[in-house]
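Researcher: Structure for this, please.
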Amino acid sequence: MLQQQRAGHLLRRLNELYPETPIPLDHQDPYTLLVAVLLSARCTDVRVNQVTPALFARADNPRAMLQVPVDEIRAIIRPCGLAPRKSAAISALSKILVAQHGGVVPADFAALEALPGVGHKTASVVMAQAFGVPAFPVDTHIHRLATRWNLSSGKNVAQTERDLKKLFPRESWNRLHLQMIYYGRQHCTARGCDGKTCLLCHELATH
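Model: Predicted structure, token format:
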């Protein structure tokens, strides 16, 4: 099966398997999503969703977060790991949002990536899920699947993102990246599938 044919088959099947694509991280607006995505680095979405209610009860907007001492933020988010770095980033980015963006999360890749603790993947998630701007955030699940399904060389996440954007229609990106995450977590895990075992790997191998 040619690479473009593989991509078309996967898109059809994932649309069948995941007609609904709820956002895994609980949030109320772009700011709470931004903070939740930042916290999700090297942490599960389940754990983040357990931690953020207490944090957002304390402060759910940049101006309120500025009133919370960094030590207190760190104590609340400690279960997510990397708490010293993440708490400092949350406080610092909140200050920048208030000082430079009127307390509003900008719908702009460059402005988001300029914020402390916000890399390209985090910015892509916020642009896609908060603002509906086509993006293809690549996490470990998507990176693994793209390589396993021969959609990308898999040299790095940046290359994987470029390859996937070329293969799939722009209007499918926001939905597809969530579908791939769901599938990777549920059926095609790093240890649970050898590239032939799960449904889609088997279909691709037999076509």
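Researcher: Any notable elements?
Model: The mean pLDDT is 96. Residues 74 and 84 are 6 Å apart (CA to CA).
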